[in-house]
What does this fold into?
Amino acid sequence: MSSEVTGGSSLLKQIPRLAEKTEAFAVAFYDYATDCGWTIHADRWFHAASTIKIPVLLGVFGAIAEDRMTPNSRVHVRNRFRSVVDSEPFRVESGRDANSEVHDALGQTMNVEDLARHMIVTSSNLATNLLLEAVGLEQIQQTLRSLDVRGVELLRGVEDENAWEKGINNRVTANGLLDVCRLIAEEGAFGPELSQQMLDILHAQEFNSGIPAGLPKDARVAHKTGEISTVAHDAGIVYLPDREPYVLVVLTQWEAGAGGRHDTIAGISRAVYEYLTEDEDA
Amino acid sequence: MPESAALPLEVVDGQALDKKYRSILRPGELVADADGVTRRLPRFFYEVPSWEAAMDIRLAPHFRLAEFIGVDVREAEPMRIFPRYVPCGVSLLAAQLELFRQNVGTYVHITANGSYRSPAHALGTIISPHNWATAADIYRIGDDFLNKRPTLQRYAKIARELLPTCWIRPIGSEPGEADDHLHIDIGYATLVPREAAGEDEDTELLPSAQQAVTAGAETEEE
It folds into this structure.
């Protein structure tokens, strides 16, 4: 597998070996301590899986920043959506969401902040589609455009099977997700207060078998994973004690049913961490 | 403003409200429904001072006012802030739902956005009885969620038999159908409480109506 590498270090030779079981991979990295970054295949497009929820989070907070809603605004919890392809109704299967809290609120309302938290922390697909509907797909797309986010294609809600069959999927590149994470980390989108709220939500992530699994226990990671049968991703901001944070995005594509996905992402995360801290220890 | 005789709520003439509310409620305005039939939006409203009041006030033994005014971020902002206004016809709906509630013998839950929606509600691109507060979308009855056809059919049958003057939305996923709630409405009914304000003072009564007013006054004196 050839690697189109921007930047340069022994780490960049190690990463392709760590990702050798994948069908394809991409990594994007930016370090606030050195103001340097590097990428591997970072403009290659991947099915976004649930990493698309970070751009959606950005879009929701964009709506808050524009006073079109507040974190406390109520949203009707209804499990019925329309496909972007043919307007056929579809529902989100409750079994696919990690917890049932949003599904338990059917018919009632939940506030925007709680839905955003469920969308990220337990990757609730129902919460994601509710927020997409409440804010509006086009509005979120517009927010991403206004922030000059490239490498993110948000085209539809989650579990829109008719769209999937037509090949209409949300897609990301490693560079695209790196830009989104940096906007949040640098408070560059909507100011410090809303950025901190987004970071708090990302810090509460409960799926930690990717980037965090390659790090020491005192590392804090504001991140979002994404996984379907053929891809496994993780993107986030890594906070180590006594060090400026860094942003790491790892996107991987796999043969359906292939194992070792989380280990591969954790391995790349570990390699990045060791490279950074070895450099600093030397 | 006069308080309703039966409810601890003030009855307000929507046409006398501030412009901020009038532009949203459009009281008495002529509009067209989904079939292009012209309807006149309600003019008289209950003024609901607070969420606590909405929770305290019962429109029927098993229905609190709050259940009819639950909305989300898609409702126009002034209609999400108290005081809020709900057409007086809501009490007619509550009476019908109470009959239904007593027959099914368990809780009847109305969805958020499922009863009164102002004409400015983002879901209200088509005028419907929801704008009269005379429609209810029910998502759950007791422990039964109404998102499966057999359950919906069972309760729709009960509603049709029990409430023959009501309209029950057909079950299905096509436009005009419902597959995740039971829609019951009593049509474009308005209610003008006795304590509501009269028509404009410069409106001239026909001679026959004038006679009726005089006769009515004499009757009351007796």
About this structure: Chain A touches chain B through 18 residues (CB under 8 Å).
